[in-house]
Write a structure and sequence with these properties.
This protein is of the alpha/beta class and about 425 residues long. The structure holds uridine-diphosphate-2(N-acetylglucosaminyl) butyric acid.
Length: about 425
């Protein structure tokens, strides 16, 4: 028997919510533990399915992994298996991040092509060409990406696009290469900075984290470390949008507000009053909204642009805003597919290529809808909060891959949401 969410719209969200560690950071940090023999400890791990899946993937490579609340202890042996083709690997996108560390340490890797969300084509050409510039040969064979190298040597790499995954893999291979590697047009996301920070704590020499040019001076070995995962800026953004859409008052804790600078600016443009809290235990922000939001345009771009992962929330907000908004999606061509589900809820929306035009209406109308990926699913729940009647959201396992305690947090903020057996 499967479960779905039943969302009764109409409640104003009010209260406080804690944000956990970032999904798109923790999985890469777990992969980075492969680079050092011994026990690496990662804290503030979110309680989401992808973490135990990644733990299984690391175990299949010979690591011992202990998950204890929000702490992951990964003990990496001297001799690692280079075959990462277990079932767990195919189930999550981030599994591809073991490729760089395995090539770095074993000089050979066989990694199952990753799974993950159905948001459009997700090629690996930049991962491959980056590793090839470092001296590896790579090819696809029997559903796996294979990489082999005699040795890895520093080089200059220009990425066609600031891909997070390609930056991470090249970085994690380059830290153990001989000489200096420069990655130009590198991704600048906070999760990349988090990874660079942990690698440097392990003894790597990475300069330029958070800029488009990463310079990596290779070292011969890394040592294990302890590292705390940064707060999840996408989860934080979800609560910010929820506050504006329900004309609520939500205090979000546990995330660096500067990782959401553009998001918070857009929420201000929609009419919200936003306060940021920097550093320490209070770190986070508060969003207070009175009255109907005003329509705002959004364009997705790599960080510090507006994240593609937040695009479904921008669509959801636009459906109930006053005026017409244009949303432009520049990263994943299938990410507008979920708009058909929004239309079931009465949204006045049209798409043309990578543009969506949404005319806001006063109130959505409840309907059964199906989540197709984590963020689209969360966006549908946000829309359900603004619909009259009970919106049934199916395929919620997608949502739960990114949001620990989603229903519990929503209920704490006053939403009328329940988990129901289908
Ligand atoms: N791309 C290529 N070739 C490559 C690699 C990427 O053409 O070799 C293209 C992609 O097709 C896409 C763009 O480059 O158009 C950016 O892709 P990127 O590599 O940055 O994405 P990713 O590393 O596969 C991560 C997140 C996604 C998030 C994107 C963009 C993880 C596990 N996933 O994916 O998160 O949407 O970056 O920010 O870190 C999510 O959390 O819901 C999610 C899908």
């Amino acid at each position: 028997m499967s479960e779905h969410f039943r969302v009764h719209g109409g409640a104003r969200l009010v209260g406080e919510v804690d944000v956990v560690g970032a999904k798109n950071s923790v999985l890469k940090l777990m992969a980075a533990a492969l680079l050092a023999e011994g026990t690496t400890t990662i804290t503030n791990c979110p309680d989401i399915l992808d973490v135990p899946l990644m733990a299984d993937a690391l175990r299949s490579l010979g690591c011992e992994v202990e998950l204890d609340g929000d702490v992951a202890r990964i003990t990496t042996p001297q001799e690692l298996s280079h075959r990462a083709d277990s079932e767990a690997m195919g189930k999550l996108r981030a599994s591809i991040c073991v490729l760089g560390p395995l090539v770095g340490r074993c000089k050979r890797a066989v990694v199952a092509l990753p799974g993950g969300d159905a948001i459009g084509s997700r090629p690996l050409d930049m991962h491959q060409s980056g590793l090839e510039k470092l001296g590896a040969r790579t090819w696809i064979e029997h559903g796996c990406i294979v990489a082999e190298a005699e040795g890895l040597h520093g080089t200059q790499i220009w990425l066609d696009f600031p891909s997070m995954g390609a930056t991470e893999n090249i970085l994690m291979a380059a830290v153990l290469a001989t000489g200096t590697t420069v990655i130009d047009n590198a991704a600048r996301e906070p999760e990349i900075v988090d990874l660079c920070l942990m690698l440097n704590q392990m003894g790597a020499k990475v300069e330029g984290a958070g800029t488009s040019t990463l310079t990596v001076h290779g070292v011969t070995e890394l040592k294990p470390t302890e590292h705390r995962v940064i707060g999840d800026r996408i989860v934080g953004a979800t609560w910010g949008f929820a506050a504006v859409m329900t004309r609520g008052d939500v205090r979000v804790r546990g995330v660096n507000p500067h990782h959401l600078d553009l998001v918070l600016e857009k929420l201000r443009m929609a009419g919200a009053e936003v306060t940021v809290y920097e550093g320490g235990e209070d770190e986070g922000f508060r969003v207070v909204m009175e009255g109907r939001p005003k329509a705002v345009d959004f364009v997705t771009l790599p960080y510090p642009g507006f994240a593609t992962d937040n695009q479904p929330f921008a669509i959801a907000l636009s459906t109930v805003s006053e005026g017409t908004a244009m949303i432009t999606e520049n990263l994943f061509e299938s990410r507008f597919r979920f708009i058909d589900e929004m239309i079931r809820l009465g949204a006045d929306a049209r798409t043309d290529g990578h543009h969506a035009v949404i005319r806001g209406i006063e109130k959505l109308s409840s309907a059964p809808v199906w989540a197709s990926d984590i963020r689209a699913g969360a966006g549908l729940v946000l829309a359900g909060l603004c619909a009259d009647g009970a919106t049934e959201v199916y395929e919620i396992f997608h949502i739960e891959r990114g949001y620990p305690g989603f229903v519990e947090n929503l209920r704490k903020l006053g939403a009328d949401v329940e988990r129901v057996s289908s």
